[in-house]
Design goal:
seven-stranded parallel sheet; single chain; 15% strand; 2 domains; Rossmann fold; alpha/beta
Length: 326
């Protein structure tokens, strides 16, 4: 079994080295993202690993012609892969999972940043304006926080947030009994109406596309804090910008936005970015925008590399693995 890794981050190499030695699986890599120019570099390998790079019919046809049998994305989401077509080619596909604590921790950090208006304060600080006007924050402990989606990450947010003493509302079609001691399950509209802070933890799908748009924003409190460390497609960016301009949204804390493909995880220093929405969002003093890195900790990088090698071992031995995308 031989593995070729695209979009390798330098931080990942020690983990790939360690698990390669443990599992006896040889690997090669490039720090470049898959492209028409480098896709043939995986020739002679059995499997490739990518991050969030789009894999459509054209890319999959080429990979198949190079002898690739297995495609593993080092991400929880796999909507960037045409899984149906990969299966038609007989190519097995899989994703990874990792500790939910990293994204949960980051989500709460963004809530605190929003409550204390930290981007605006640091802008003032950089120009040596240490005056207090405009710096007045709110306490997370006295807020009502709404968590939309209580899967692994949403559940971790609930548990971690409970220590702050805030009121917690939750919305999910499949309530978890073990979370009811921390807060109250309500329908999504009740959550929108009553939460001071709303954080999203649902997957990207046709059903969740633009689940936050003008209609949903109109139901929320004036000055609501909106947090997204899940998927950019959950929020209609144009509606969010309108909400920020009108004051309906008091603060937006975002680790992911729409149309970020080809933008994040690359060094664009000095480039003119062709992403108008991001440029507009960056102009607001009440927006915190980070480059889709809430997951990026030592523990999660180790977890996801481990799963790549465990998946390949299971594939080679003909075993089932729950992370395979059927």
């Amino acid at each position: 079994m031989k593995l070729y890794v695209y979009a390798m981050e330098p931080d990942e190499i020690p983990y790939f080295d360690a698990f390669s030695a443990k599992y006896g699986i040889e690997y090669g890599y490039t720090e470049e993202y898959p492209s028409p120019e480098n896709l043939s570099w995986c020739t002679g390998y059995d499997a490739i690993s990518i991050i969030t790079n789009p894999m459509g019919k054209g890319e999959l046809d080429r990979l198949y012609s190079y002898g690739i049998k297995y495609l593993i994305t080092r991400s929880i989401g796999y909507e960037h892969i045409n899984v149906r077509y990969a299966h038609q080619l007989g190519m097995r596909t899989a994703h990874v999972t990792y500790s939910p604590n990293a994204v949960a921790n980051y989500t709460i950090m963004m809530m605190l940043i929003a409550c204390r208006r930290l981007p605006f304060i640091m802008m003032k600080n950089a120009r040596q304006d240490f005056s207090l006007p405009g710096n007045l924050g709110k306490e997370l402990s006295n807020s009502t926080v709404g968590i939309v989606g209580t899967g692994n990450i949403g559940s971790a947010v609930v548990r971690h947030l409970s220590g702050f003493g805030c009121k917690i509302l939750m919305s999910d079609p499949y309530p978890k009994e073990e979370l009811k001691c921390y807060g109250e399950y309500v329908d999504t509209e009740d959550l929108y109406r009553n939460a001071d802070i709303i954080t999203l933890h649902v997957p990207a799908s046709a059903d969740t596309l633009h689940m936050i748009s003008d209609e949903e924003l109109s139901k929320m409190k004036d000055g609501v804090i909106l947090v997204n460390a899940a998927r950019g497609s959950l929020i209609d960016t144009e509606a969010m910008i309108r909400g920020l301009e009108s004051g309906k949204i008091g603060f937006a804390a975002l680790d992911t936005i729409e149309n970020e493909e080809g933008l994040y995880y690359l060094d664009h220093s000095g480039d003119i970015l062709k992403n108008h929405d991001r440029s507009i969002l960056m102009a607001f003093p009440n927006v915190f925008l980070s480059p889709h890195m809430a997951y990026y900790t030592e523990e999660t990088v180790s977890d996801r590399v481990y799963h790549v090698f465990q998946l390949l071992k299971d594939f080679a031995e003909g075993k089932e693995n729950p992370l395979e995308v059927k």
